[in-house]
Design brief:
The protein is of the alpha/beta class. The chain is built from 17 helices and 20 strands. It has helices spanning 12-23, 66-74, 108-116, 123-138, 163-170, 174-179, 184-187, 196-208, 218-230, 273-277, 288-296, 386-406, 410-414, 423-430, 447-450, 472-488, 492-502, and strands at residues 4-8, 27-31, 43-46, 49-52, 58-59, 82-84, 91-95, 100-104, 210-213, 234-236, 241-247, 250-256, 261-262, 266-269, 302-310, 321-325, 344-348, 361-368, 415-421, 461-463.
Length: 505
């Protein structure tokens, strides 16, 4: 195609969208405000260790998985360094007030068996629950990279009920129903609001088998960047868009902070839509109702992250994810600002290249409400108060206290140094409203209101990224396909992926 595109934002969505478009012959420029690209894939170095900012565990990257197939089509699958999570346990869930651990396993039957050991009378219910998860995901042609019959899809009754109602529909044991919702931190789950399909997508990905990036996720972002540049595209770093100029209800050019102007046939925003609105020279180019709706949409929760450098040889590498949950009654209160924090967190030991017996670091991610940092929301990176720094230290100590419960002597015997990040860090680094980890919150009670289409009233502007459709390492690349097909045509990319597999490319 003799067409061009400018992509605002070099996160996962922007990079995958750019990679697909350059492969199909478009001239593409990606503009990223940070010194490195990748969004949630970015890594940073502290205390001599590489820490990831997000994307600690990924789905769809085992051979035959949807994102693996997308990478194969791009010709980069063999450049990704992954370590697959153990078959059993694939997750360990620790309920602190009971001092009880639950273990999950990879594969549908093994997943059922893992919970049936503790809830034997629920075996048949667990089978029905897992079958229902897979049946729901099977409604999504894009998840399996199948050609869609149209842009509009009809769904079953299960698809849009709340997560808790869906689980309760199949599981009669109240405690098991709560334990099965343990992945809430991964998608910002809210009781009576989050649609069941979000829960189903995340769970099916992890039941199929999760993976981790060896040596940090930044390498994958760099692989996408290099692919774009090798195909003739450009990725502009450390120079975000400062202005979107419009004329006759169309974008005429974008201007960067350094004053550079770029024009194209298509403009694609991979940043938070509320951040996008602030860039237009004429906000009225988009309908007032549309702008008001975006501003009013609730965002998913944020998180506080504790990065720990471990003393050499002090803590063995764990090849699965670990969940600390204060009690089963905490499951739906991870983000409640009025309840004592933390109610739970996810921790893991990221693998180094050539990972040995012992881990070099631990990352702890604890869900947190924006209300916890609201008093400092007018501050910026590098310009926070002493009060804020003291608060961060207090939060870190609370998390270390919880780790002491699981691993007595952890603080003294294992911790060499710590680094912290709050919802403010996420907001300022990623440009997401209120430090949201998963974009706009979906509400099953008004799903139309919480859906943000990839097409806009500005005919040469499209959207991509986690605020459209589904967030996460799997959801964002699949949305990138949707965005590209709005330019290339329905099923164009899906058919190209299938054709590349047939030809062994």
């Amino acid at each position: 195609m003799d067409k061009s595109a400018v992509i605002i934002g070099g996160g996962l969505g922007g990079l995958f969208t750019a990679a697909i478009l350059v492969k199909e012959g478009l001239k593409v420029s990606v503009i990223e405000k940070n010194p490195t690209c990748g969004g949630g894939l970015q890594s940073f170095t502290r205390m001599g260790e590489i820490f990831d900012t997000g994307m600690h565990v990924v789905g769809g990257m085992r051979e035959g998985g949807n994102i693996y197939r997308l990478c194969h089509y791009l010709g980069i699958a063999d450049k990704v360094h992954l370590r697959h999570v153990d078959e059993f346990p694939s997750d360990v869930i620790y309920i602190a007030d009971e001092k009880k651990r639950y273990y999950t396993a990879r594969g549908k039957e093994a997943f059922v068996d893992s919970f049936a050991k503790d809830f034997p009378d629920q075996r048949e219910n667990l089978k029905a629950y897992v079958d229902a998860l897979y049946a729901m995901v099977d409604e999504l042609d894009m998840f399996y990279l199948r050609p869609a019959k149209s842009w509009i899809t009809m769904h079953s009754d299960n698809f849009l009920i709340s997560v808790n109602d869906f689980i309760d529909k199949y599981i009669s044991d109240p405690k098991l129903a709560l334990v099965l919702a343990y992945m809430n931190p991964l998608y910002g789950g809210v009781k009576d609001k989050t649609p069941a399909y979000i829960h189903a997508l995340v769970n099916v990905l992890y039941i199929n088998g999760a993976s981790r990036f060896e040596g940090g996720s930044q390498a994958f972002a760099n692989t996408l960047k290099e692919y774009i540049e090798d195909k003739g595209g450009e990725v502009i770093l450390n120079d975000g868009v400062s202005l979107i100029a419009t004329e006759d209800k169309l974008i005429s050019y974008v201007q960067t902070r350094s004053g550079r102007r770029l024009s194209a046939d298509y403009y694609i925003s991979a940043i938070h839509p509320c951040s996008l609105l602030k860039l237009f020279d004429d906000p009225g180019v988009l309908p007032k109702a549309y702008r008001s709706r975006l501003d009013s949409l609730p965002n998913t929760g944020s998180a506080f992250t504790l990065n720990i450098k471990l003393k050499r040889g002090s803590f063995k590498y764990i090849n699965h994810s670990c969940y600390y949950i204060y009690s089963t009654s905490s499951i739906w209160h991870f983000y409640s600002p009025e309840i004592e924090w933390p109610q739970g967190f996810l921790y893991m030991t990221p693998p180094d290249r050539n990972q040995g017996e012992y881990a070099s670091k631990i990352i702890i991610t604890a869900p947190m409400s924006w209300d916890k940092v609201r008093r400092w929301e007018d501050s910026s990176l590098g310009h926070r108060s002493a009060e804020y720094e003291a608060w961060k230290k207090e939060c870190a100590e609370k998390l270390l206290d919880k780790m002491e419960e699981i691993y007595p002597g952890f603080r003294e015997n294992c911790v060499e140094g710590i680094n912290t990040a709050s919802p403010l860090t996420i907001r300022d680094w990623y440009g997401t409203k209120e430090g949201s980890m998963c974009g706009f919150s979906k509400d099953c009670n008004n799903i139309t209101l919480s859906q943000v289409p990839i097409v806009t009233k500005v005919k040469n502007l499209l959207l991509t990224g986690q605020n459209c459709n589904v967030h996460g390492f799997c959801g964002v690349p699949l949305t990138a396909i949707n965005t590209c097909e709005a330019i290339l045509g329905l099923n164009y990319v899906i058919n190209a992926i299938t054709e590349s597999e047939k030809n062994g490319q």
